[in-house]
Description:
Domain Large ribosomal subunit protein bL12 C-terminal: 62-89
Low-confidence stretches: none
Organism: Streptomyces erythrogriseus
Protein name: Large ribosomal subunit protein bL12 C-terminal domain-containing protein
Distance between the termini: 64 Å
Mean pLDDT: 91
Largest sheet: none
Oligomer: single chain
Order of helices and strands: HHHH
Amino acid sequence: MDIAILFCTCVVALGVASIQTQLTRSDRRVARVERKLDAVMRHLGLEEEVPRKDEILTLVRDGKQVQAIKLYREATGAGLVEAKQAVDAMS
Length: 91
């Protein structure tokens, strides 16, 4: 009985490791595609539309950086670092 539990635990651990490896590869591929898309947009002189940009700019002008970052994240679904960089660029 103990051997069966050990075997099942090993199978689950290997399965989790395999899934994590696939996710890591996918994350790297997505990041590479995003970099390429950003390069194409810069080359064409295009900027990404930011929803609620006027509200975010108002918060930035009022010195409310934290609220601006929070609103940017809500509006775009960006991560914290990306949102902070974008809001800093608006300053």
